[in-house]
Amino acid sequence: MPKMKTRKCAAKRLKQTGTGKFRRNKAGARHILTKKSSKRKRHLSGGTEVKATEMSRIKAALPYGLPR
């Protein structure tokens, strides 16, 4: 059976933590920042964990996990 392919878009957007969870960047922090409050921009700057409901999609996109 051939090897499964990794979805490169997911591999470039996600980072794996030491415990095996995945971290992602928050949406909305790239442009049109003048109308957003400082608090909102500050909260958008940090990453966040991928929700448990999305993990099945992540596992399918990254069948072998992320390379270390």
The CATH topology, please? Factor Xa Inhibitor
Going by CATH, the architecture would be Irregular
**Number of strand segments:** 3
Structural class by helix and strand composition: alpha+beta
Count the DSSP helices.
Answer: 3
- Mean of all residue-level pLDDT scores: 93
Q: Please indicate the percent range of residues in DSSP E strands (runs of 2 or more).
A: 5-15%
Anisotropy-based shape:
elongated
Fraction of residues in H or I helices: 25-40%
Supply the CATH class. Answer: Few Secondary Structures
Instruction: Give, in spatial order, the strands making up the sheet with the most strands.
Output: 1-2-3
Give the C-alpha Rg.
15 Å
Characterization of this structure:
The protein has 68 residues and is an alpha+beta fold. The chain has one domain: Factor Xa Inhibitor (Irregular). It contains three helices and three strands. The protein has helices spanning 8-13, 38-45, 55-61, and strands at 15-16, 22-24, 48-49. A three-stranded antiparallel sheet has the order 1-2-3. The longest helix has 8 residues, at 38-45. 1% of the residues are buried. The model has no long low-confidence stretch (mean pLDDT 93).
